[in-house]
Automatic annotation (TrEMBL):
The protein's name in its UniProt record: Activator of 90 kDa heat shock protein ATPase homolog 1
Domain Activator of Hsp90 ATPase AHSA1-like N-terminal: from-to ranges: 29-164
Keyword Phosphoprotein: no
A GO cellular component entry from the record: cytosol
Upper classification of the organism: Eukaryota, Metazoa, Ecdysozoa, Arthropoda, Hexapoda
A biological-process GO annotation: protein folding
Similarity field: Belongs to the AHA1 family.
Alphabetical list of SMART domains matching this protein: Aha1_N
Keyword Membrane set for record: no
Keywords recorded for this protein, A-Z: Stress response
Pfam families linked: Aha1_N, AHSA1
């Protein structure tokens, strides 16, 4: 088994002409936020929506809050984006006698977690009356479809623009063969739902003493210690291996929610590349009961050893909790980032 930098092709940088990211193995990232804001504005500003004598137009892109990034891991492109958008619109009925109708379109959840057809949009108007209601209905029905097409174009252009330069040619190649490059979203368009734990008749409500146990798990990963730490703390990497929306504030006292809210908690200690301590609970546990998870990360000559100790796990759920760590954390991290391949 090769030691770090001794025979393992992921670490032999001289194999590449530019001595960077050999075989595209390492996680590399581009910030797509500023570009995305400009692209969304250009696609939505002054967008005309007309049919059957009804004319509407997006007059202003008032708000675009969020972030986007493009990442490469092991020759796969992973895109992460999450936007909250507010548009202003106006319209008039053909031959209408009333004043120009104005309103807003709120798009709170443009993200890789949702298919374009699932992106929520709320249409509102600032005036009342029959003509205003007809225009609102028009924007709700046809307007949302036209806007979704523009959002679909944004996603297509994001992938096209930020694929450039992320996947590097391998040794002996002058260009990248795009036919061999996989493009996936950070959520893989497939959410993970952690296996529910059946509630038992003797499960104690809040305020009662709960019988608990500790568990300890060890796992080897073929990566640097810092890479594993990043996989547990960088929101785009956590999104990738959990395959769903992630809320995470990575600082002492910061909250997190994973796997559709099944796992929630708080960071208690963070030592980059070495240690993570969390308050951690599964939503099926008795109300407000938290365990404490300590993740110690030890970089060895040829692998990284991870030791997870979890205290105060309800006794009836020890076996399932251990299985969920292996399945939804360890195995998923290895599959997503290639951290399980020992050469």
């Amino acid at each position: 088994m090769a030691k770090w930098g001794e025979g393992d092709p992921r670490w032999i940088v001289e194999e590449r002409p530019d001595a960077t990211n050999v075989n595209n193995w390492h996680w590399t990232e581009k910030n797509a936020g500023p570009w995305s804001k400009e692209q969304l504005k250009s696609l939505l500003q002054d967008l005309k929506i007309s049919k059957n004598g009804i004319d509407c137009k997006i007059t202003e892109v008032e708000k675009i809050n969020g972030e986007a990034s493009a990442n490469n891991r092991k020759g796969k492109l992973i895109f992460f984006y999450e936007w909250d958008i507010l548009l202003k619109w106006e319209g008039r009925l053909a031959g209408g006698k009333g004043e120009l109708v104005k309103g807003e379109v709120q798009i709170p959840n443009l993200s890789e977690e949702n298919d374009i057809s699932e992106v929520d949009m709320t249409v509102t108007i600032k005036t009342s009356g029959e003509e205003a209601q007809r225009l609102k209905t028009f924007m709700h029905n046809l307007g949302r479809d036209v806007i979704r097409q523009q959002l679909k174009e944004y996603i297509r252009s994001l992938r096209e623009e930020f694929s450039k330069g992320l996947i590097l040619p391998k040794k002996g190649e002058s260009t990248v063969n795009n036919d061999t490059v996989s493009t996936i979203t950070s959520g893989f368009n497939k959410k993970i739902s952690m296996t529910p734990i059946e509630s038992t008749p003797n499960q104690k409500p809040i305020g009662c003493k709960i019988d608990t146990r500790s568990i300890e798990l060890t796992e080897k990963f073929q990566c640097r210690a810092q890479e594993f730490y990043d996989a547990m703390t960088r929101i785009e990497m956590v999104t990738a291996f959990t395959r769903g929306h992630v809320k995470m504030d990575v600082q002492k006292g910061g909250k997190f929610a994973l796997f559709g809210g099944n796992i929630t908690g708080e960071f208690r200690e963070l030592v980059p590349g070495k240690k993570i301590v969390q308050l951690w609970r599964y939503k099926q546990w008795p109300d407000q009961h938290f365990s404490e998870v300590t993740i110690n990360i030890h970089e060895k000559d040829d692998h990284t050893l991870v030791i997870v100790k979890q205290d105060a796990v309800p006794s009836s759920e020890v076996e399932q909790t251990s299985e969920n760590w292996k399945r939804y954390y360890f195995d998923s991290i290895k599959r997503t980032f290639g951290f399980g391949a020992f050469l």
